[in-house]
Fold this protein.
Amino acid sequence: MTRNWWTALFAAAALAPTGALAQDETPSDMQGLALLTSCRAGESGCGAYLQGIVDMMIAQQSVCNPPRYNRHRLRTAYVRWAEVNTYFHDKHMMAGAERAMSETWPCPSNSPR
């Protein structure tokens, strides 16, 4: 995928109103399977996308101690997760990417024991 494609993807995600597309209406190039295919191919856009997801999650404190600038490790973690969690192949790629990152680098529970 080209750099312009990923730029358009980020711009569309930023400008799209929340809930604009139902999960089953996600265009195929925005689905988890498209991201998995990109990551398997080692495309630079995959690592950049996952790094953006991780940066967002760090700001939200929903992921802890990920290899923030190691795109290869982010890609590897996503591919391993996505190959097992096929349910997310036809969902928006962000849903699976967030789940993969939070399951791979979870934050400890803040609840009192």
